[in-house]
Write a structure and sequence with these properties.
Blueprint: H1 11-34, H2 42-55, H3 68-91, H4 99-124, H5 131-145, H6 148-156, H7 165-187, H8 195-217, E1 222-223, E2 226-227, H9 231-234, H10 238-244, H11 249-263, H12 283-294
Length: about 300
């Protein structure tokens, strides 16, 4: 069994676990508090569910009594991920994502699957090369890019999003704490270094730092306990701008204008059961937005 499956605790590891758990709780609370999942990427949440299911395969053979902390958190991460997906698909209105976001999600999933054995070969040189190790490496690579469909969605949405700064801070900082955990382990008595987790953890943290910079430097528009992020705001971030794309800003603006003009029409095409309006924006969310503006 690979070394990274032996668990060693220090303050940064505990803070990372608590921060990750808090991010899940904050997102679930925000969805219920706003009675909406507008602005949250279903694709990103589906990718997170795949990450946790592929990473925690050891739940099937590791005795929970050996490490109850890890066992509890693993079950929570998997369960909360599917709970969020259930809320988005069955309970509360969400923003329907465009084809480009689905292509981005497919690229992240397929690219991570293709890269996993190659990355493992480079860093492990066929040592500990088994199915469990491949799936763990796949989950590390995929998690580092899970946020990309979310960024694509935030470019296209023109309704309030339930994502707030608390969620971004906790989600982004948990990987940063994990990196510090690996550093402490390397310079401590273990002298253990996990290059795969560290490299892709840095990539993941960089995405969240760049997006957080965009989030906090934009012009604040607070509606229904959320905020609106437009294409000009997202173009401020270097990583976000280059990977999500700067050249679609004009098209995003045009799409927003079309959305506004569409709402002025008296008849909405509503999909049964989902209450969807034109351009895939839920009617219930648009109604709430109008109510918030009147207040």
């Amino acid at each position: 069994m690979a070394t990274h499956h032996h668990y060693y605790f220090n303050v940064f590891r505990i803070l990372g676990d608590l921060s990750h758990t808090a991010s899940k709780c904050i997102l679930i609370w925000a969805i219920h508090a706003n009675r909406s999942s507008e602005g949250i990427s279903l694709i990103t949440q589906l990718l997170y569910a795949i990450v946790f299911c592929s990473r925690y395969l050891d739940l099937f053979w590791v005795n929970p009594a050996r490490m109850p902390w890890n066992f509890t958190l693993k079950l929570f991460y998997i369960g909360s991920s599917f709970y969020i997906i259930g809320l988005m698909m069955r309970v509360f209105a969400r923003t329907r994502e465009k084809e480009r976001a689905w292509k981005m999600g497919s690229f992240c999933l397929g690219g991570s699957a293709a890269a996993a054995p190659l990355v493992l070969l480079v860093f492990k040189r066929w040592h500990h090369y088994n199915f469990h190790e491949v799936m763990w490496t796949f989950s590390e690579i995929l998690e580092s890019v899970c946020v990309l469909p979310q960024l694509v969605l935030l470019r296209q949405t023109s309704v309030p999003t339930v994502i707030d700064s608390f969620y971004l801070v906790t989600l982004g900082s948990y990987r940063a704490f994990y990196i510090l955990n690996w550093i402490v382990r390397y310079f401590g008595k273990e002298h253990h270094f996990e290059p795969i987790a560290t490299i892709f953890g840095i990539i993941q943290t960089a995405f969240y730092v760049d997006f957080a910079w965009v989030y906090w430097t934009r012009q604040r528009v607070k509606l229904r306990n959320g905020g609106v992020v437009d294409s000009e705001d997202l173009s401020r971030g270097w990583l976000v701008g280059n990977l999500v794309g700067r050249n679609e800003a004009d098209r995003d603006k045009a799409g927003t204008s079309d959305s506004v003009s569409d709402h002025s029409q008296p008849n909405f095409s509503v999909r049964s059961g989902g209450q969807w309006g034109v351009r895939g924006i839920s009617v219930t969310a648009d109604d709430t937005l109008e109510d918030s503006t009147k207040r």
